[in-house]
Amino acid sequence: MNFKMKALAAAAALALSVGVAQAQISGNVVKIGILTDMSSLYADLSGQGSVLAAKMAIEDFKAKEKGLNVEVVFADHQNKADVGSQIANKWYDSEGVDVIVDTPNSGVALAVNQITKDKGKVFINSGAASSDLTGKACSPNTIHWTYDTWMLANGTGKAIVKTGGDTWFFITADYAFGHALERDTEAVVIKNGGKVLGKVRAPINTQDFSSFLLQAQSSKAKIIGLANAGGDTVNSIKQASEFGIVKGGQNLAGLLVFLTDVHGLGLEKAQGLIFTETFYWDLNDNTRAFTKRFAAGNGGKYPTMVQAGVYAGVLHYLKAVSALKSDDGTKVVAKMKEMPTDDPLFGKGAIRADGRKIHPAYLVEVKKPSESKGPYDYYKIRATIPAEEAFRPIDQGDCPLVAKK
Amino acid sequence: MSEIFGVPTQALFGQLLIGLINGSFYALLSLGLAVIFGLLNIINFTHGAQYMMGAFVAYFLAHKAGLGYWWALVIVPLAVGATGMVIERLMLSRLYKLDHLYGLLLTFGLALIIEGSFRHQFGSAGLPYSMPEDLTGAFNLGFMFLPKYRAWVIGSSLVICLGTWFMIERTKLGAYLRAATENPSLVQAFGVNVPRMITLTYGFGVGLAALAGVFAAPIYQVAPQMGSSLIIVVFAVVVIGGMGSILGSVITGFGLGVVEGLTKVFYPEASNTVIFVIMAIVLMIRPQGLFGQR
């Protein structure tokens, strides 16, 4: 009897301790999964640089000293939604991953968004652009950190229409991201009194854009809007100069251009492009200090806004986990929304109920080769769009989380 | 303005011409593949990586050695061709007696290794390569603006394709080559050094891929994945044309470039699948390919 009682007590204690441990940090480790493009057109703007950014955030948070055991794993989603979903499921179900970060490619991101919601984990997206992540597909488990298509359209589209670029032709990447970017930009163009003369949908990872450029040329639109990203944008800009598009009086609007794209194009070809970013390495002392450390670990390559967003997102996530002493997905996201954000790269900001992180955006122009002092000295900041105006107003996104209120 | 299916005829001409330009890349690459397959019986999956290496070597020549585009046209095929010959001597030559599958696996593995190391070293956004001064600008053809550089690519690729076809089908050297693939021991008995000839042939095929890489460098971004996105299409071209048929691969290359160009006008969403649809149809109706012999 005595023995039985003891055994029972021990079992109860054990059950209790396991129960408590689960309510706190699952498996005693916070596991961060960087799901990104490691091998294709977005690998430079996210990829290994995003893994490095996450590791730097853990280091700067001083996780160890705070008694938090944090681990980073990463995987290549190959820009395929099925591959991405498979990895997300495996990570959540059998490998104890608590949060998925980065995930460029809106198609993959929307899939991971749904899986994360179903499993009650956390998804901090930095790399994908579709504004649907905080619109009709918004989720209590997702935070969209860095930028989105509405913000790009609003920043770049508005600036261009206001300076006379009122007729547009779109060359659009034919998947969720391109469609969202085209839709959001078209809305801005029309709202500001412009007109869309035509559009063409090009498959992702197209090498030759000349056929599409020719269609854009014969549309006689003043502005050719490039609703694509990464290698696709680089190739379109490069080939547009070959076909004399800018000389012929038409202008290109790169709706989503990253620092790495400008670096790959060279200033000779990229000069004069106007677009919107939410981070640039040369903004202030904090961003410069971060960049110096980052470049040292990234083969000399400077960070893009996506990588900066991974850093800031992971930092804020760890703050929330540490404050809650739990890594329960839904609770952590609620806490992240409740706490104001503050990090060296994006400054002070906030996360809205729909999961949208808000911060200022910068309308930048690429410098002429003569104005640049060296590698990565590429942007002139033409305007700063305040955080409240940079992103879609919360009541216009059709996000069910907001409508409920 | 007159129209065909709602597209102005003028725009259509422009698209046809662009199709031909892209077709000239397909033709150059599939030509090299056809030569290698026809004479070595190797399905060279490294071809895309060798095309990419061609573009990268052109970039290095320009930025490290100060040698411009015209030098690159000569040096790059030789240099990359030489690496090809090393691969042939050290690795491929051991596989000739085995099934095709082994050569395919080896070259595919090599392609992954080469691409992976370039990506590790140079990242995926690629490197800029500027157009040669003499070929910048464009001709105004009335119905379209034809960049001089593209005109140059289409012209030189035609010359190279026809030249290669002539050399293999119409000269004595070509006759030796063809004979050596039919019956190597007999040709060797006549005092021809067959293994050396095969090494040179592989080097030549690889050199063609590298040359296509130099042609591509000023138009496309010099990036590690530039070959892998093209090579699958080129394989489809070779299959449609008939494995090993040299003239077949050239004609199919240009022809499919045009078909793809037209798809970009009428139904752009399908432009990167149309070639595979054609491949499936050809394989069903004529499994040996349009120009292949059974």
Characterization of this structure:
The complex is a heterodimer of chains A (405) and B (294). Chain A is α/β, with parallel strands linked by helices and 405 residues long. Chain A folds into two domains: 29-147 and 283-358, Response regulator (Rossmann fold, 3-Layer(aba) Sandwich); 150-277 and 361-390, Response regulator (Rossmann fold). Chain A is 44% helix and 19% strand. Chain A is built from 15 helices and 15 strands. The radius of gyration of chain A is 22 Å and the shape is globular. Residues 14-23 of chain A have low confidence and may be disordered. In chain B, the strands form two sheets. A two-stranded antiparallel ribbon of chain B has the order 1-2. Chain B is mainly α and 294 residues long. The model of chain B has no long low-confidence stretch (mean pLDDT 88).
The fraction of residues in strands of chain A falls at 15-25%
Would you state the CATH class of chain B? Mainly Alpha
The total tally of domains of chain B equals 1
Mean pLDDT of chain A: 91
Identify the biggest protein-protein contact and residues per side.
A-B, 44 and 39 residues
Low-confidence stretches of chain A: 14-23
Order of helices and strands of chain B: EEHHHHEEHHHHHHH
Distance between the termini of chain A: 57 Å
CATH class group of the largest domain in chain A: Alpha Beta
Give the name of the CATH architecture of chain B.
Orthogonal Bundle
Number of domains of chain A: 2
Helix content of chain B: over 70%
Tell the overall outline of chain B: globular
CATH H-tier superfamily of the largest domain in chain A: Response regulator
Strand order, sheet with most strands of chain A: 2-1-3-4-5
Measure the end-to-end span of chain B.
48 Å
* Largest sheet: spatial strand order of chain B: 1-2
Distinct helical segment count of chain B: 11
**Helix and strand pattern of chain A:** HEHEHEHEEHEHEHEHEHHEHHHEEEEEHH
What is the CATH topology of the largest domain in chain A?
A: Rossmann fold
* Beta-strand residue fraction of chain B: under 5%
